[in-house]
From TrEMBL:
SUPFAM superfamilies: Family A G protein-coupled receptor-like. This is Olfactory receptor. PROSITE patterns: G_PROTEIN_RECEP_F1_1 (PS00237), G_PROTEIN_RECEP_F1_2 (PS50262). GO terms for molecular function: G protein-coupled receptor activity; odorant binding; olfactory receptor activity. One of its GO terms (biological process) is G protein-coupled receptor signaling pathway. It is found in: Cell membrane. InterPro entries: GPCR_Rhodpsn, GPCR_Rhodpsn_7TM, Olfact_rcpt, Olfactory_GPCR. Belongs to the G-protein coupled receptor 1 family.
Length: 323
């Protein structure tokens, strides 16, 4: 589909990373392999945190929902890009684009929110251990996760409603592999994108508040850890907190940089790399980071992969709740 033809249809043309068809196929295959590996990693985490009785603490409960969000986030963008690249079209309908806006922005905010909750969970566990069971009771954890998903739905609804109010014109070419809001703003015909800018500002302020909360939690955590007399205890705390801190820093820094960086009419390689950094890499790295740095999780993964008896017994228990 040529740029001229794009002026007469309601959809958009996703340019992706290259105009060369051979490179498009190679990139699509790389994205497909990444998606499959991410799906496998997150599926393993979701499975073991559901059926292993030793991994039923709030930390693993939140990790399970983070894995669900990671899998869902990649599923929103990557399959569509792989399909359009292999079909050599790059076309995405208006409805599909709005669905991408809704789910991607909603899941992105949900991930920020769940990472904030996870940092608070670590703060209570390390700094207030005597009150942990009361503060992080199962009921409160359930309510916290419900609030995370609800806030994500609200965020996605606000972004989508604001985007629907925009009138698009011109060639409707998106220099990205998915319907990214900064790229959509460039296609606005007039000043009718003020509502979307207000929503973006509001979410940015809320995101900054989450970052402050995360930073405060970790300042308290590290202050407490450094006073621990046991080197083994410090090592155990750092092994669970540092991966989480890395995920938060990487996700927020790349996302903020991409959205605050002024967009140009001729996107650079940096623009495309940043989009990969905050859309593809965090969901892909999360299972690896949490698995490699968490001894309990590694033992559970080995147990799951090597023991057929473990799989069968726990699956039956999880279904019938009779064990």
């Amino acid at each position: 589909m040529t740029p001229r033809n794009m002026t007469t249809v309601s959809g958009f043309l996703l340019m992706g990373f290259s105009d060369n068809h051979e490179l498009q196929i190679l990139q699509a295959l790389l994205f497909l392999v990444t998606y499959l590996l991410d799906s496998a990693g997150n599926f393993i985490i979701i499975t073991i945190t559901t059926i292993d009785k030793q991994l039923q603490s709030p930390m693993y409960y939140f990790l399970k929902h983070l894995s669900i969000m990671d899998f869902s986030s990649l599923s929103v963008t990557v399959p569509q890009y792989v399909d359009s690249s292999l079909a050599r079209s790059g076309y995405i309908s208006y409805g599909q684009c709005m669905l991408q806006v809704f789910f991607f922005t909603g899941l992105a905010w949900s991930e920020v929110a769940i990472l904030t909750v996870m940092s608070y969970d670590r703060y209570v566990a390390i700094c207030l251990p005597l009150h942990y069971e009361v503060i992080m009771s199962p009921r409160k954890c359930t309510w916290a996760v419900a609030a995370v998903w609800l806030s994500g739905g609200i965020s996605g609804t606000l972004f989508t409603a604001s985007t629907l109010s925009i009138r698009f014109c011109g060639h409707k070419i998106i220099h990205q592999f998915f319907c990214d809001i900064p790229q959509l703003l460039k296609l606005s015909c007039s000043n009718d994108d003020f509502g979307l800018l207000k929503v973006s500002t509001f979410i940015a302020v809320m995101g900054f508040a989450c970052f402050v909360g995360i930073a405060f939690s970790y300042c308290q955590i590290f202050s407490t850890v450094l006073r621990m007399p046991s080197a083994e205890g410090r090592s155990k705390v750092f092994s669970t907190c540092l991966p989480h801190l890395f995920v938060v820093s990487f996700f927020l820094s790349t996302g903020i940089c991409a959205y605050l960086k002024p967009t140009s009419d001729s996107p650079t390689a940096l623009d495309l790399m940043l989009s990969i950094f905050y859309t593809v890499l965090p969901p892909t790295l999360n299972p690896v980071i949490y698995s490699l740095r968490n001894e309990s999780l590694k033992r559970a993964v080995k147990k799951l992969l090597l023991s057929e008896e473990f799989i069968g017994k726990n699956y039956v228990c999880s279904v019938f709740s009779a064990c």
